[in-house]
Amino acid sequence: MKTIRFGIIGCGLMGKEFASAAARWCHLVDPAARPEIVAICNRSEKPFAWFTENFPTITQVTHDYKALLANPDVDAVYIALPHDLHEQTYIDAIRAGKHLMGEKPFGIDLQANRAIADAIAKHPDVFVRCVSQFPFYPAVQHLGTMVEQKKFGRILNVQTGFLHSSDLDRDKPINWKRMIESNGEYGVMGDLGMHACHVPLRAGWRPMRASSGELKISSVLSNVVTERWTDKTRSEKTPCKTWDNATVLIHAHDPQTDNQFPWTLRTERIAPGEKNSWYVEVLGETMSAKWNSREANTLHVLDHQATGGAQNWQQLQTGYSPRYATITGGIFEFGFTDAILQMWAAYLHEMVTGEVPNSFAGCVTPDEVTVSHEIFTAALQSANG
């Protein structure tokens, strides 16, 4: 089996999730390649001990990401840094010839994203993809197969979103995701939006354009908490200018049927009652389906023809049936860490083989990321105009 030697730049929560997935690679059945963590980079030393104690393959520990990129023993990098650092680090990694898995949103704004896309175009031998794990749940993979098989007929309405309540607590100190300088003007859309865009964009659904060339998009953006404590001492407050919640209505087009439909995209950090809910709903003329991570192993399906027109939603229990085979029996349930493992399996599989089992079994492409930036930029313009 081919080994891909990885460096991790940004050893926070998601860096640890990737390393953990690499540690349980034996869970997969006959993968195309396996990752090996050989180098780590982080501004602070705090996470270094966890990595070096658990991964004896690590031979480079550094605060300088350029030193990591210069390491000839590193084949690929996972970069999980604040949005304002994406443009420079991603471009430097691509120019260094390192295959890249990057965190969303792939640049703090559309201009930064286009600079990254230009670097990718100039280095076609470098394999680049974006993180988004939720579509690798078996139920969502099943929904994707329904799209490929044109089960829905004419699309009538699509709703996708990512909602949680982490910022409902007004006493929570500010962090980089709540600062325009590091998170960007997209606010919550830059943080959560790619997850909500993944399935529709992979389905080929795209925003329509007006005769002026502008995307047909309208939005309502909300800055609910306008200031937060500067730190845990709660002695001083600082302005919090990023958008907490965003609802975006997209006039979308389906190339399979050449029809138009409304796509509602919601991203919210202040959503009472939501712990961390990712959802997708597709309503079609012949079939409909909906899924929410709160019921991770259940796909709700409405087959208008099979029920003779009766509006009866059926529950399809998907169990443990991932796209990339594992040792786990199908009777068991699938979870978040399993989705992380599947996403990384997809990344390495496509990198090594040049293909994926089907279109929904692949990671987010740079082109899809650029479309998401165009959506978020249009949403900002709508809110400001």
Helical/strand content category: alpha/beta
The CATH topology of the largest domain corresponds to Dihydrodipicolinate Reductase, domain 2
Shape category: globular
N-to-C terminal Cα separation, in Å?
54 Å
Report the top-level CATH class of the largest domain: Alpha Beta
Counting DSSP E segments of at least 2 residues, the number of strands comes to 17
CATH superfamily of the largest domain: Dihydrodipicolinate Reductase, domain 2
Count helical runs. Answer: 10
Report the β-strand fraction as a percent range. 25-35%
Q: Low-confidence parts, pLDDT < 50 over ≥5 residues?
A: none
Helix and strand element order: EHEHEHEHEHEHEHHEEEEEEEEEEHH
Percent helix? 25-40%
Number of domains: 2
Could you report the average pLDDT, rounded to the nearest whole number?
Answer: 96
> Describe the biggest sheet?
9 strands, mixed
Q: Classify the oligomer.
A: single chain
Topology of helices and strands:
Elements: E1 2-9, H1 13-23, E2 33-41, H2 48-54, E3 60-62, H3 65-69, E4 76-79, H4 86-95, E5 99-102, H5 110-122, E6 128-130, H6 138-148, E7 155-163, H7 180-183, H8 188-202, E8 206-207, E9 217-222, E10 227-229, E11 237-239, E12 245-254, E13 259-268, E14 277-284, E15 287-292, E16 298-303, E17 314-317, H9 336-353, H10 366-384
Parallel strand pairs: 1-2, 1-4, 2-3, 4-5, 5-6, 7-13
Antiparallel strand pairs: 7-14, 8-12, 9-12, 10-11, 12-13, 14-15, 15-16, 16-17
